[in-house]
Amino acid sequence: MTDTRTKPMDAKRLQDILLISPFHRWLGLRIVSQSGDSLELEMPWRDEIVSNPAIGAAHGGILSALVDLTGLYAVLAAGGVAKATVDLRVDFHRAATEGPLRAIGCPIKMGRTLSIADTQILSADGRLLASGRGAYVSG
Amino acid sequence: MTDTRTKPMDAKRLQDILLISPFHRWLGLRIVSQSGDSLELEMPWRDEIVSNPAIGAAHGGILSALVDLTGLYAVLAAGGVAKATVDLRVDFHRAATEGPLRAIGCPIKMGRTLSIADTQILSADGRLLASGRGAYVSG
Amino acid sequence: MTDTRTKPMDAKRLQDILLISPFHRWLGLRIVSQSGDSLELEMPWRDEIVSNPAIGAAHGGILSALVDLTGLYAVLAAGGVAKATVDLRVDFHRAATEGPLRAIGCPIKMGRTLSIADTQILSADGRLLASGRGAYVSG
Amino acid sequence: MTDTRTKPMDAKRLQDILLISPFHRWLGLRIVSQSGDSLELEMPWRDEIVSNPAIGAAHGGILSALVDLTGLYAVLAAGGVAKATVDLRVDFHRAATEGPLRAIGCPIKMGRTLSIADTQILSADGRLLASGRGAYVSG
Q: Quick check: C86 contacting D, CB < 8 Å?
């Protein structure tokens, strides 16, 4: 697998593609910043994402969705091709109890067949809540 | 880690606990069957879960949420303790394009500190859409 | 990804390919049984594989190697194509303190681009020591 | 999980502990540098680690072992507690065809129960060959 990073994708176009997905619109995603090296997204809180109402923590599936999609769009932002996620791994470090949540994705390997990106999920005050990695297929 | 499987949890109580979570209610989860060896859940389709509207495929984050929660509740159903997910790994095999989705979780290791469960996500006609594993902490 | 399982590989040929690898010869691997659904390998103990001499436990890297290679050869045994491992995930359940170790690999998804196989590592008396999954690329 | 990073471990003591393991001695590991933030190890080539003799590539199991152990010792180097690996995930980016190999591990989360560390495996000329993550339990 050789590096296939070409030119970064235009910000407006990335935002448009991101919000084609009804689930991304439901999550209320917004692009904060992007470059060939990283993509930062922001997601507001919404009450339906809560897993444990006793502590008001966001569901791990929501954090996993953020890791998944931020990594994929980080590959696109860097000029790579990522048609679908083939696998995803997420570690949950701390309960996410309020929004907005920040997700920062970084491509680790841009490949011809497969690209890999790491994503960190942070609280508004910068604490690491979850982190993980997706493998994205180009064809 | 020694096996700490005790007696399976009562079905009514499991359903009550499952639906305490607002996100689980949003997903519309329903327990199909449960035993000490496996737990089967069903999730109806809803338009907000779509990732790619061109093919109408469910978002990988939704499938990940199903793998995460089904494994955790499979550990509970088997009489184990699972307070939170520590990590999650999911492989996406085929696009999920219609509901209901079925999720079948099986405990692999019931430990004092950590339990592991595997979950498969199937289409209504029994095709394997995604599969994965969660590690759940007891304290 | 459509299923590309063709006809299972001949046992003699599988053994020959398995032992082309100097590392596999160092591990002393032997095929116990094979079919389109599973492959069982056996590995004798050797003192160099010990991680913690206080309890005489095998190194996690050795168990990981077994998960990796058994899954890949399970795909080959089932008639699939697996050129290289793209990623590997292993859970360690119990210390492996004596040999021989048994590794049982099962293909989960045979794909055109990517195949997935699960492997369990068992002690001689059948206790689950480690389990995991590899993703194998065909080209 | 709160951060439990205390004071970094003494270099001589870390090297002594690392080489208690017969498998680590077989691998020929050497500590290049260490701090509370990262640990760098070096591993010489040896012919027994080859998987595919046609291209002379190191076995994925060897790279996995390096990811596993470097992460665990990076947690120790940072003053954390890591008794055993509970799970390991590795991505293979490029064939490793000559030595020495360099492994750089960084703690991501130092927890009371569980610590997480990321490790990168690099060729002598600095190319990323593999990368991954281990979860290490403290008790």
A: yes
DSSP A95-106: ---SS-EEEEEE
Provide the pLDDT for residue A19.
Answer: 97
Phi/psi class of residue B72: alpha, beta or left (left: φ > 0; alpha: ψ in -120 to 50)? alpha
B131 vs chain A: nearest CA distance in angstroms? Answer: 10
Check CB contact under 8 Å for C68 and D66: no
Which whole-number Å values give the CA distances from C127 to A130, B111, D123, in the listed order? 33, 14, 38
How far is D8 from A12, CA to CA, in rounded Å?
46
Asked if B114 is an interface residue toward chain D (Cβ–Cβ < 8 A), one would say yes
Could you list the pLDDT tens digit for every one of the 139 residues in chain A? 345 556 778 888 999 999 999 999 999 999 999 988 999 999 999 999 999 899 999 999 999 999 999 999 999 999 999 999 999 999 999 999 999 999 999 999 999 999 999 999 999 999 999 999 999 999 7
Residue D75 to residue B32: CA distance in whole angstroms: 43
Cα distance from N-terminal residue to C-terminal residue, chain A: 14
Nearest residue, CB atoms, C108 vs list B108, B111, B131: B131
ipTM above 0.90, yes or no: yes
| Residue B1 belongs to some domain of the structure | no
Residue ranges making up the domain that contains C39: 11-137
Backbone phi and psi for residue C93, each to the nearest 5 degrees, phi listed first = -100, -40
In a domain, B3, yes or no: no
Note whether C78 and C110 are within 8 A (CB): yes
> Which chain D residue has its CA at the smallest distance from B134's CA?
D87
B78-99 mean pLDDT: 96
Q: Taking a C-beta distance cutoff of 8 angstroms, is the pair D97, D57 a contact?
A: yes
Q: Report CA D50 to chain centroid distance, whole Å.
A: 19
Entry pTM: 0.95
| D52 and C CB contact within 8 Å | yes
Q: Which CATH number covers residue A86?
A: 3.10.129.10
Give the chain C residue whose CA is nearest to the CA of B3.
C93
B105 within a domain of the structure (yes/no) = yes
Inter-helix orientation angle A60-77/B60-77, to 10°: 150
Q: With respect to residue A2, please indicate whether it lies within any of the assigned structural domains.
A: no
* Mean pLDDT score, B61-73: 98
**Residue A116 sits at the chain D interface (C-beta within 8 Å):** yes
Q: Does B90 touch chain D (CB under 8 A)?
A: no
Q: List chain A residues with CB under 8 Å of B50.
A: 21-23
- Give which of A133, A136, A137 to mutate to test D binding, by max D Cβ within 10 Å: A133
When divided into structural domains, chain A yields a total of 1
